[in-house]
Design brief:
Number of strands: 0
Oligomer: single chain
Shape: rod-shaped
Radius of gyration: 22 Å
Structural class: mainly alpha
Strand content: under 5%
Order of helices and strands: HHH
Distance between the termini: 78 Å
Length: 137
Amino acid sequence: MKEESIKLMECQYSEANLMLDVIAQYAKSAIQSVIIINGMAIISILTFIGNTIERGFVYNKWLIGFTIFCFCVGIIGGMLGYCFAYLSQQSFRRIYENNNSADEKGVLYRNIGFGVVIASIVFFFIGCILGVFSIVP
């Protein structure tokens, strides 16, 4: 009887670890995507400026600056998302190692990380809108 309960606990522990790993992979993919799209947007804006500045193309320099700023905030948000994802995973792993109930810090870190990544996406779209208005005469 005791061996069966130990095997059951080991199975539940490995299943919980597998679920955490799957969730971590999804979060990692989302965060990487946020960093990549914001970084590529900055590169695109700088390439555009470099190609058009010699031709005398007129654009709003302040809006271009704010556009790049929004994309930079998006990248920083993605990096913060990585930090909070790491902290939340560490907290959630401690739950299963110590057989504790919900860890409030882990939930807080997860929610902050989720919010930061969502904010990064919002800043990307704001940057896109500002970028369009900065080049439209």
